[in-house]
Amino acid sequence: MGSMDFRTEQRQAQTLSPRLQHAVRLLQLSSLEFAQQVHDALGKNPFLEEDGNPDDQSDEGLSPEQAAEAQEAREAQEAAADTMAAPEGDLPGEGDRDMWQADGLGSGKRADDDETSALDMMAVPTSLATHLHGQLAVLPLTLRDLVLAKVIVESLDDDGYLRNDLQEMIEVADLDPAATLEEMQIALKRVQALEPAGVAARSVSECLLAQLSAIEDADARGLAQHIISEHLNCLAAKDVSTMARALGRTPAEIEAVCDRIRRLDPRPGWRFGSTQLQYVIPDVIVRKVRGQWNVQLNPAIIPKVRLNQVYAELFQRHRRGQNAEMASHLQEAKWTMCNVEQRFSTILSVAEAIVSRQKHFLEFGAMAMKPLGLREIADELGLHESTVSRVTNNKYMATPIGVFELKYFFSRAMTTASGGACSGTAIRGLIKDIIEAEAPTAPLSDAEIARQLATQGLQVARRTVTKYRQLLKIEAVERRRRHAPS
Fold first, then answer.
1. Which one of 18-32, 60-74, 94-108, 300-314 scores highest in mean pLDDT?
2. CA distances from 366 to 115, 231, 444 (A)
3. CA dihedral of residues 276, 278, 283, 289 (deg, nearest 10)
4. 387 in Cβ contact with 378 (< 8 Å)
């Protein structure tokens, strides 16, 4: 019969505290997400306040000589302000000073001024519905016809298409007597006659057909109508040969008409609306100063937040045991400031290490990119490899040749025929150059590109070329082929 016994063992293991886990999660956030986190903490924590002194960051990005000149200019300005004291009796009162401070220190227009402010002059994006309603307002329509046309306009999606069934829209109009299907069709035709051409279409082919008047040549226009109506799938697949056989035309004629069709707008609604583009805000800025590459944090991404020292000192001076919640707030505020400092110092260190290894890329472009691994940066900075991975995620670097995500600079090494190493980024750049130099009538297949790379000492498999071509968003050989005119 087996026996039961108890044993005690001691083992050492590394664990992350909740605060450290939170700091790691913050490191992985993008700059916008991190700024939102800090803003939320600012609204909840009484020991945090906005740093309202923009002069602290005014010299960032300047050379030492430029910074000295800026400091001299500020001192001269302050000296001039001291000598230009206001005459006695003309000093502003307390109420006037509050008004000037609330009004942006006198830099903006007063609310009761008759002059137009800068905000009033900002362009307001016009939506597609507003644009169409404006055209309907000048048409000689009866109230009933106008209501039906407005129902059509309000049913359009962001692409400018009408996805709803006309029969269902009769109930939406809610007229007495009820609208007929024929009336709804007439209203649809009225809306389709408005600008932009192709609006209120119910399919891609209907949208493109409505824009064929832009093709001046009658023969090309007729051929385009056949292609859109009967061979839209071949048009999308760039299957010129099939369309040429079906329509009895030369491949060159079909190719010319297809190029003209592709200039039409399949989504006319995208020209309007308040859709905002999401711009990338770089975390670090790289400039070449006196022959040396200089890496600096982008001041725009650093949250303007600081610890309120007055509140912190008052609390520490009058701290009591029953103020546990305030003590927690103070500790959280200190951790927030520590996270802000640690985050940006880590980003800057990683960016500097990347730039020191990829100087040739900044000088000569993608084909000069060196192989680089996360471990190489981690070992140099004394960080964990996963930390470097988090730092390079959703972080961007602005360089003289473009804005790149930090992870773009990392790629595995590929051995060349001479025994050297080449990065995948450099090979992608070489593949792009080979494809750009190919003849349009005789594009290169992936196998032929692989053979050309082999002649340059790069042993790259055909499937690797295919993968890199797809990453570059370059189409396959048949879709790149152009037919010469006969």
1. 300-314
2. 52, 40, 21
3. -80
4. yes
413-480: what CATH class? mainly alpha
Q: Which residues pair with 193 in a beta bridge?
A: none
Domain boundaries, the chain: 128-192, 204-271, 284-409, 413-480
User: Counting beta carbons within 10 angstroms of the beta carbon of residue 287, is it exposed (0 to 12), middle (13 to 18) or buried (19 or more)?
Assistant: middle
Cα separation, 91 vs 96, whole angstroms: 9
Supply the pLDDT for residue 57: 44
**Cβ–Cβ under 8 Å, residues 414 and 430:** no
Q: Is 87 helix (H, G, I), strand (E, B) or coil?
A: coil
Residue 120: its pLDDT value, please? 60
Cα Dmax for the chain: 106
Question: What's the CA dihedral at 160, 165, 166, 168 to 10 degrees?
Answer: -120
CB 198 within 8 A of CB 268: yes
Number of other residues whose CB lies within 10 A of the CB of residue 467: 14
Helix (H) and strand (E) counts for the chain? 22, 8
**Are the beta carbons of 414 and 406 closer than 8 angstroms?**
no
The pTM assigned to this predicted structure is 0.58
Concatenated DSSP letters for 234-302?
HHHHT-HHHHHHHHT--HHHHHHHHHHHTTS-S-GGGGSS-PPP-----SEEEEEETTEEEEEE-GGGS
What gap in Å lies between CA 163 and CA 166, rounded to an integer? Answer: 9
β-bridge pairing 413-415 and 402-405? unpaired
H-assigned helices in 307-402 = 309-317, 324-357, 359-364, 374-381, 385-392
Q: Provide the pLDDT confidence category of residue 174 given band limits of 50, 70 and 90.
A: confident
300 C-beta neighbours (distance < 10 Å), count: 12
Q: By the 8 A CB rule, do 478 and 238 touch? A: yes
